[in-house]
Amino acid sequence: MKNVLVIGGSYFVGRIFVEELSKVPGYMIYVMNRGSAPLKIEGVTEIRCDRHDMEGMSESIPGLMWNAVVDFCAYTPQDIASVLSILPSYAIGHYIYISTASVYERTHELPICEDATKVTRPQPGPHGDYAYKKYLAEVELEHQCQDGKIPWTILRPTFIYGKYNYAPRESYFFDLLQGDKAIIVPDNELALFTFVAVWDIARAIIGCLGNQSAYTRAFNLAGEELVSYHRLMEVLQMATEKHIRTEVMSVERIEAQGIPLPFPLDQHLVYNGTLITKHINMAYTPFVDGMKATYEWYRQVRSKKI
Length: 306
Fold this sequence. Notes:
2 domains; seven-stranded parallel β-sheet
């Protein structure tokens, strides 16, 4: 049996990963988090501990040989360093870190590939230090793993959608459709962005586990389809089989009225996610198919609340 330690993993991407990995024979799965959202998955051992509690981690993490550590919730270099100070390097067969595509500097050279320039300082905005700290965590991981001779892999997803998504992205539009309300779309038709289904991230992680082709590499996770707001409306109509009422509005007016559209209004955020498909056996879910599955889950959840 292969031992996998999952750090985080109880809400969105991590939850899907644990659900999918639990279906694969040959793995013993241990999930360490604060326990605020218990998984209750058969065969999965849950460890209730805050990763910032060094003493707690030392006492609660079993002294096993870990074929892989999959880290979903490291937001600073200290988060990486603390785990690697608790677990001896000889006990870690592979460290997989879920980072973010936000670590790249803004660029007009599109699509953005893994070797693009990274952020060098906090970015403007209320969450401007998020991407910078995530990148510093990547740097810390590479440094620590090089010293400890631990194979590592970094995954950088773009906009994630799918089951369990707590961010108001696709659900923002689903809620409007359920309320038979018009959806505001920007008059700028050329702002393009890329998505990745949560199920594809889970498959990517599983494909990387112990896979030497994924060692000492960083991969973007981004579907190949370029999506604008107008294309998104087409996909939503196909996925929900509902009539979509839209109202076109200028970017300036949208911003002035504080309309919380979840994706860029007037700039491209396009990433190249094909590198990983050359190193592991995976393919991205077509956007329409993934959104159909997401809407079906949304309907099931909504029906339970009524």
